[in-house]
């Protein structure tokens, strides 16, 4: 059973609403491209390719999707444009499933162990990193887990202040030091406190200064080494936060972070305010790192565990 429970009806409605701008963008173009046409031919596929690229799915991922649909057309001999939407959904879900980690079905369970589950969060300023940490803390706490935050982005006073506000709002403790302190020292203190308090989840904020990749790489490596002195298996999750509203820039940002550290999870934020939601598909496909969380609103409840089938259904299903 995943820690966030089953995908409920109200969560699906919230997802539908959050993706409405992207859906409207895709569907208005898709409807025009098939108007007056009865079958999926080369012209329709060319139009579809353009629609997916301009929806920020990305060129490489779009070509994979088009290739899959071409194979379906060749295999089934004749496909009407009325079937295109269903086929598109099926092939995108199949593509995303190829990147799914074994045992991962869109929900998460905490491993049974004597140590706290440690999440190290990375991402540049402005992507919604601090907000995502706050929402994650809220989600975990809502399931009865004891959560503690670590303010290891010690280079920005605003980062520490914002995280402190979230810790108070959610009602979870935070470990912090003065500005300019060693981030690794903050992480160490946070894990020590977590063990003392028998915390279930530790969420560590880190700085994301991509202008100096070598320094970032060294800093994150040091933070990991120091955490492992307290919890040898830490961090269990390295979560990269990306702003979906930046479209393909988010993908480029992600590629730079993968060069600086090994990530095993991605959170896509601000999906509710953009028509570029297709970037989620491209990021998942291109990076081979699972998108685990999506932000679809400003409220604490508006962070969802990413469910591939539900996401694609919301994006491409025909409204009643």
Describe the structure.
The protein is an alpha/beta fold and 320 residues long. Helices cover 50% and strands 12% of the residues. It has 12 helices and 8 strands. It has helices at residues 9-18, 20-34, 42-54, 59-76, 84-97, 129-142, 157-170, 183-196, 213-228, 248-260, 279-287, 308-316, and strands at 117-122, 147-151, 174-175, 201-205, 237-243, 265-269, 291-295, 303-305. The chain has an 8-stranded mixed sheet with strand order 3-2-4-1-5-6-7-8, with helices on both faces. Helix 6 (129-142) packs parallel to helix 7 (157-170). The radius of gyration is 21 Å and the shape is elongated. The two termini are 31 Å apart.
Number of helices: 12
Strand content: 5-15%
Characterize the biggest β-sheet: 8 strands, mixed
Mean of all residue-level pLDDT scores: 87
Sequence-ordered SSE layout with sheet pairings:
Blueprint: H1 9-18, H2 20-34, H3 42-54, H4 59-76, H5 84-97, E1 117-122, H6 129-142, E2 147-151, H7 157-170, E3 174-175, H8 183-196, E4 201-205, H9 213-228, E5 237-243, H10 248-260, E6 265-269, H11 279-287, E7 291-295, E8 303-305, H12 308-316
Parallel strand pairs: 1-4, 1-5, 2-3, 2-4, 5-6, 6-7
Antiparallel strand pairs: 7-8
Helix pairs in contact: 2-3, 3-4, 4-5, 5-12, 6-7, 8-9, 9-10, 10-11
């Amino acid at each position: 059973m995943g820690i966030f429970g089953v995908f409920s009806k109200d969560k699906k409605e919230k997802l539908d609403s959050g993706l409405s701008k992207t859906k409207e963008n895709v569907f208005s173009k898709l409807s025009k491209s098939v108007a007056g046409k009865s079958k999926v031919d080369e012209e329709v596929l060319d139009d579809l390719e353009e629609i997916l690229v301009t929806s920020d799915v990305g060129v490489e991922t779009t070509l994979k999707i088009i290739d899959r649909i071409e194979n379906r057309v060749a295999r089934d001999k004749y496909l009407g444009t009325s079937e295109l939407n269903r086929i598109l959904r099926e092939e995108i879900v199949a593509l995303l499933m190829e990147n799914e980690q074994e045992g991962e079905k869109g929900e998460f369970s905490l491993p049974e162990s004597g140590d706290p589950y440690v999440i190290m969060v990375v991402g540049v300023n402005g992507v919604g990193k601090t907000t995502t940490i706050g929402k994650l803390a809220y989600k975990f706490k809502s399931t009865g887990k004891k959560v503690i935050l670590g303010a290891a982005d010690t280079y920005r006073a605003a980062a520490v202040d914002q995280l402190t506000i979230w810790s108070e709002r959610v009602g979870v403790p935070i470990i912090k030091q003065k500005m300019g302190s060693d981030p690794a020292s903050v992480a160490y203190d946070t894990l020590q406190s977590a063990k003392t308090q028998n915390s279930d989840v530790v969420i560590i904020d880190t700085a994301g200064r991509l202008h100096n990749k070598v320094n970032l790489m060294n800093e994150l490596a040091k933070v990991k080494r120091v955490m492992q002195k307290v919890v040898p298996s830490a961090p269990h999750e390295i979560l990269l936060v990306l702003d979906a509203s930046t479209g393909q820039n988010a993908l480029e940002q992600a590629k730079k972070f993968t060069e600086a550290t090994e990530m095993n999870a991605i959170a896509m934020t601000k999906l509710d305010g953009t028509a570029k939601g297709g970037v989620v598909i491209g990021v998942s496909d291109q990076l081979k790192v699972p998108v685990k969380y999506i932000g679809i609103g400003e409220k604490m409840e508006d962070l969802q565990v990413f469910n591939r089938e539900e996401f694609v259904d919301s994006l491409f299903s025909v409204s009643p």
